[in-house]
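Obj.: predict assembly geometry.
Materials: sequence records (below).
Method: joint structure prediction, all chains together.
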Amino acid sequence: MKIGLEIHVQLPTKSKMFCSCPTTGTETVNTHICPGCLGLPGSRPSLNKKALELGLTIAKKLKCTIPETTWFSRKTYFYPDLCKHFQITQHDTPIGFDGVFYLGKKPIRIARVLLEEDPGKIKRVGNGSSLIDYNRSGIPLTEIVTEPDLSSPSEAREFLSELLTEIKSTIGLTDSGERNIRCDCNISVGSERCEVKNVTGLKNVETCLKYEAVRQTKLIKSGGKIERETRHFDEAKRVTTSARKKEFEADYGYIGEPDLGIYHVANMAKSIELCESPLIMIDRFQKEYGIDEKIAKQIVNTSIELAKLFEKIAKITDVDTAQTWIMGTISANWKSFEKNFEKYDDIVTIISKFYKGDTTDTQCNLELKTLMTGVSAEKAASISADLDTIINKIIEDNPSFLIDYRRNEKAFNWIVGIIMKQTRGKYSSENIISAAKKLIEERL
Amino acid sequence: MNVNNITTINTTYRMFSAFTDKIESDAKFTFSVSDNLTSKSFETSAGSKILEGYRPPFDSTTIRRMKDVGGFLMGKTNMDEFGFGTFSVNSAFGIPRNPFDIERSCGGPSGGSACAAAVFDHVSLGTSIMCPASFCGVYGLSPSYGRVSRYGLIDCGNSFDRIGILSFKASALREYLPIIVGKDVHDPTSMIQPDLKLGGKKMCAVAVPKQIIDNKKVSKGVIESFNRSIESLKSIGIDVEYVDIPTLEYSVSVYSIIATSEASTDLARYCGMRCGPQDGDYTLKFDDYFTSFRSQYFGDEAKKRILLGTLIRMAGYVDKYYNKALRVRESIIADYKRQFERFDAIITPTMPFISPKFDDVSKMSTLDSYKSEFLTATPIVTGMPHLSVTCGYSEGMPIGLMFTSDHWNENVLVDMAERWDCSFDVKHAEVNA
Amino acid sequence: MNKEIVKKTACVAHIALTDEELDRYSTDLDEMFRYFEILNDAPEIKNHGFNPVEIADVLRDDVPLMEIPSEDCIADMKTYDGYIKGPRLL
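Observations (raw structure tokens):
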């Protein structure tokens, strides 16, 4: 049995792939849309740098060859969720090709890694019209295509699970419900293969492959012939059915996307540093620093940044000192510190002063706490800075607010309400109103 | 500025698909644009029924930039559907008539714009403006590919399309070019341009490709006028030399292949959903629904180019035609670049004949009309800036002379237009309203 | 030009042709393709982009921004309950 997977992963960018619409934060249909992701006449794509970087990071992680230059192509087909009736994808120069991923000791070859835009989402309605939400239109996707190296449905599931764990840690993808993973599954038990499109979730992938394996085996045994075709997976009935419309690769009529130009990705990829995967890091910490597995796990699983900090401190002091402070005061105050990464190096400085004997244990502890929580003599100043940060975040989390505000200043009351609610009486309404006014004006 | 009787004038010349005669009193100047530039104040249909009634939610960058300096958009001009044509007869909302003879074509695709520039003596913006400039006897400047943002330009061929300036006054080029050029984050292809610097270098030496003159495709009247222009150029101190540019003959094919491939994907989006007419039967299956709209609302030339482009993109054709054309385009560019090591511009007539009568246009075959662009095709294919100036008249109709300069060298063209204007007596058409 | 090819192309392009159109377009396309044969002998440069000037490495920072109100963008569209209406799928 031969199984190959095409895995689509939504990339965790803040804005869409070819336009600036936000990728998250709305539950209302057709609100995060613009002429670009609606394909309105005269709109143009503009590539999100972060999407390209994340794609290259994945390609590198999967040990792909990165081409000197890459470009995008138009894949033309007609479907109501695809606004322009062509998808901007990659055809002849994927950002990565000829990679490999080890499932235990078994190499699973990666044929290519490419970038493309997601179409909108269709809500089917009876036999009447279709209804479409274009919020998803233009969300960046990476497609990872394997060679048919997987030999059973359970192995496919295991592969998928490990691959996704790796990728998630590589690109910082969290398990929030808004981003999903979809698979096209190719399977053959004989000489001809079938493709089951758009299967969501690990469990469904395994179920659908099992069903297909049985179906194809039975068909061959009874003297039938497997026809090369596209099939759909019915999640409720747990069966695959033949898709009525056959799609032929030849009909997509790929041409280069002239509105974007080309990208020198080999150079770009060189400057991307891969972070170590958590599993490897835990393993290395034990070997390199001789610390307990339990402690290594605790540090790495708290945060990769904490683990990196541990290494920095261990380097300029010693492992014991690093372990004591990391597991003690630093871990205890990590949550409040997490948003102050620019002060990262200050922690190292404070501990090195202690290590040299310039400060006492108590002094060091106090300095760390002050730095990490930001509560100190400069409390007042920092609190107002905090208020600015909170307001800025609220404005950014609600991208439609500024538009509403431009039209109707009453929207201001709404945002003040949100700020009050979030700060729970920490600031006076006077302070909130004046700070919010100032920050909003700055953005207009 | 003759704007008091626009309605009457438009009844005669049909340059506008939409216009207003309520000019804002504080407007510094009026202008018009071809109907493939999106505008909030007018419906935008690009000359096509499939976009009839479409109201874009944004102004194209060029319109916005013109408005920002006090310009007032007076109207949208009639054009060949999506830019598909050479005579503006493929226009769904009125065929513009030549200001020198209303029985003749304004040229295409942006015929209405050249007509408006000639009749209203204001600046008009359009795409592929060489032929219209030549036929209507106005100055036309098409800047380098990537010089003017295409944000808000409805596509005809993404790797060729350019917005240019049409005006009866040579001085308008220097005045308006700096307004519409410049980087625009909404169009990545505009982001690599060097700054526009007007002034400085002047045109000293020009080349005439031998192929153009020898191949007998150019009418006698045009050749005579062109030869006289060469003498005029020499008389103002410009060296003229005949050169061999063999790749020229490939330009029409390269253009037709790449442009229709691109257009056939650009036009896939028009289907009775999202914009334009959407009054179909939603219970039809999507394939049938889309097909019914596209068959009903696309005009003849659009259908033809969609078919040609779709077929070229198919397996068995794409390598032989599309990929080949991309490689040949590079060699045409290289050939022209070589000339620019010695010359400031390459000159040819703009069109091989004067504006034809509408009766004669209807007799032309598809290939004949594509081939009539054999002089303009090269600057379009190479993405190089080019200028058309009126250099003579035959049967009372204007004849165009075209200068093509190297990428980003609009400055020599702007300067040339002004020098030409000093030495040549450009005639105004007599407007009958 | 084989009419079957033109028919198939029209189907892919979602355009229905009348018999008259099929005849005429087949002739036109045939004429065009014969003209394109001129390219067989044309010199070429292998390294090509998709634009006549090199457009390279133009990227946008990942900053969410909405410049046009979403309701303006769909003002002309047929909607139902906020969704855009489209034709039947199956």
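Conclusions so far: Residues 379-443 of chain A form a domain with the Arc Repressor Mutant, subunit A fold (CATH 1.10.10.410).
To do: check interface contacts against the pulldown list.
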